[in-house]
Amino acid sequence: MYNPSAVGGTANTEYGSRLFIYEVEGLRQNGETDKMDYSIRRSGSVFITVPYSRMNQEMQRISRMGGKIVSIRPYDGTSSNGNGSAHTESQSVQSVEAPKPMTQAKEKKKHDDVPVNIYRPNNPYVGTCLSNDELVAEGGIGTVRHLIFDISGGDLRYLEGQSIGIIPDGTDDRGKPHKIRLYSIASTRHGDHVDDKTVSLCVRQLEYKHPETGETVYGVCSTFLKNLNPGDPVKITGPVGKEMLLPEDPEANIIMMATGTGIAPFRAYLWRMFKDNERAANPDYQFKGFAWLIFGIPTTPNVLYMQELEELQAKYPDHFRITYAISREQKNSEGGRMYIQHRVAEHADEIWNMVKQEKTHTYICGLKGMEDGIDEAMAGAAGKEDITWKEYQRSIKERWHVETY
């Protein structure tokens, strides 16, 4: 997918070669942004690195996609690469760390027992690739890999909802080592083998056409991961993140809204809740609540982990429900493409009734473009009871979890 941080060349003047950071709000999810990818931000903004020579073109492009530029500042070259979830990265121009979370709810509570930054970029853990399998079925769009890494030789431990960093091999176009890319963990704390020796990722290979040359450009880290073979080493940092942690209450209701590889943390949740070997490994956590996954994907072959998800739903019909939004196959009520926000609108009253319950936690992971539509649907449902959604949403910040990009 196209990464706006990589567009444009540089002018031949010293000033023309400078870079600037655009802080952009309100990018809509649509057919155009479906082709794009943004560095994950724990905020309400997308941060785009733009060469001076392309500032006007980028302003026009952002406007066409419904975005609003709220600030522009020079890039000083010191900011780190993106923070966040499962599946994004920067290219030839590095992305910039968001200065402070904006729309994502503030950290819910102090988690003193949550492992964080056991391994840092200057001293990463070197794991081993155990397997690298394709998740997109025949006829689907793009390539998404499920990777399992051996971490048995170190001290790396993690919880469901956290992320790890990957440092791809090689150097950038300036001869410097690549910076880390963060990906949401797709396995439970015990790993896919339930032996506390592995960690798994769900990674889509970033691919897009350069807007000027038409050349196909591939993501640095996602391509590195796609091409890993069993036995290959991989540098891992982390874990990081406390926003997307599951509540400890086994009777909680869990609403999950995902697009694409935003399914990664939710796979970890569902495996912990429902997989037989996981339930056996966690006698103190036997899920008895209700889990609802609303999953947005472009085509049926792009439904990641489809067989296992539907097996869980068949086995636990009173505790797990899946609702798909398949944009290129299904139509919304207005005859357009079916995105996740349209499914939320269809079920808004039911979701609202669940959200009002103190034991309900809602998690949103994937494309930021779905947030406005979700808020609009919830505002309509809440408004029937003369409740202002935005005010209510702020009041449940400990139960409303967002990690979008």
Describe this structure in words.
- 46% of the residues are buried.
- The longest helix is centred in the last third of the chain and has 14 residues, at 370-383.
- The strands form 4 sheets. A 6-stranded antiparallel β-sheet has the order 7-6-11-4-5-8, with helices on one face. Strands 14-13-12-15-16 form a 5-stranded parallel β-sheet, with helices on both faces. A 3-stranded antiparallel β-sheet has the order 2-1-3, covered by helices on one side.
- β9 (207-209) and β10 form a beta hairpin.
- 20% of the residues lie in helices and 25% in strands.
- It is an alpha/beta fold.
- Among the domains are: 125-240, Elongation Factor Tu (Ef-tu), domain 3, CATH 2.40.30.10; 253-404, Rossmann fold (3-Layer(aba) Sandwich), CATH 3.40.50.80.
- Mean pLDDT is 83; it is low at 1-17, 34-43 and 78-108.
- The protein is globular, with a radius of gyration of 21 Å.
- α7 (348-355) packs across α8 (370-383).
- The chain is built from 9 helices and 16 strands.
